[in-house]
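Lecture 7 notes: from sequence to structure.

We start with a single chain of 192 residues. Read the sequence below before looking at the structure.
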Amino acid sequence: MTQKAITTAVVYHSGYGHTQRVAEAVADGASGTLIAIDAEGNIPESAWQTLHAADAIVFGSPTYMGGPSWQFKKFADDSSKPWFGEQWKDKIFGGFTNSATLNGDKLNTLQYFVLLAGQHGGIWVSLAIKPSNVKASKRDDPNRIGSYIGAMAQSDADAAPEEMSLGDLETARRYGARIAEVASRFAATRTV
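Now the structure, written as tokens:
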């Protein structure tokens, strides 16, 4: 019996391009499809079909004022339609965020994503990368921020997206790969 290929949809909003780079790294690791939420908080109708068909959904947003951007929140509100029909129940979920400061209250954004996934009846995937938290740790080490429930990135407020920490992007790439792996294992148990 041949198992179907796992599909991952990475739905995200990016205000200045930094969060987009994190989304691209997650999608690279998961071999996933990117879905950009536009400046008005919308995605194309075809993107909703991509989300419905996906085995895994990854949420992404910058952290603004202690939470996800209003554009992401609009998308989340619009997801009440698939919620009503339980279309995302038992899907695998993950999430990532970026802010200008090391803390930046990014945990609140990830918790928002966990709750949104829970409302949809989804299964959350943790980061599972030990933090780089010793004196020898560098800015470009994986999980330098020390997150556990999802990927966090930090971009200086005056830095271009091209100047982002390679460690943050590698963290995101590894997280995408983990999400795809968990989705694959979950799908295998459902076909038995």
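The CA atoms of residues 48 and 82 lie 9 Å apart. Keep this in mind for problem set 3.
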